[in-house]
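Predict structure. Chain length: 324.
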Amino acid sequence: MRKSLLTATATSALILGLAAPAVAAPVPSSYLIDPVGPAADAVFPEGVATDSHFFYVGSTTDGTIYRGDLGGTTATPLLAGGQDGRTSAVGLKVSDGFLFVAGGATGRFFVYDLDSSELVGSFLVDPAPAGTENPTFLNDAVVAPDGSVYVTDSIRPVLYRIGPDDYATDGVETLEVFLEFDGTPLQYQAGFNVNGIAATPDGQYLVLAQSNTRKLFRVELATGEVSPIDLGGALVNGDGLVLRGRTLYAVERPQTGDARVVEIMLSGDLTSGTVISLTSDESFNDPTTAAIARGRLLVVNSQFGERAAGQTPGPFTVSTIPLP
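Prediction complete.
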């Protein structure tokens, strides 16, 4: 079900003919989310994803998906909140022309074709949440090099997987469990557990952040083996993760002190790592997740602190900072 970009690339080349190649506009220092709909004053964004031209941000409040040009200044609605049963959008990923959306406590997961903005696949955890029963929180997702999509659940001790040929569904299908964490070194506790997720370029491993224990873990995909990542005693309250080679960027909202991006150099086998920098920025406001675009790091400002305190939030933004 993976979409080939070859045809589109070839067609574009024919249309452009001998025209000079376009130069990408620089990424600005920040983006504004232009809110609409029922959650206009309460977007409270969490996830961010990018492709070569656009960035995408989701509202945790009503599920609206916003899209902005990387060379522009503002993100506007692409997919309306509530559409397709998407009432909350948390983790986002873009790959091969598809947008993947984790639905948080709804237990829903969505796949969209970005060319048409149409829903391709719709998934639901089993058992489905019902009121206070069967709680779940689909938090983040990553697309491995083979096209498999892995989805974290911060409440249930499992990791989900959608195969590269299984994006399309006939109605709502069950989100299949790939790995159960019971009996592994990754033990779920009270609160939000596994959150951010990243995949290595060679497709051998996943890296997971367990937020409440402030620990990182490696998952070997071929065997399902789960191993702690030793940071030499350092603890990282990881939310979103971005992996670039062996450099891991973890967006951290510590219990005290400034929010920051933690830069970690991982060992070759990913069983250990060293914290090499901590980057804060005055624009950060409860940052959650990040993505890389044009040599910069895009960091979502959730303003979850304002929501928890019942305060009126300011304009919702996405910060962009140089890569640490």
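Summary: Confidence is low (pLDDT under 50) at residues 4-21.
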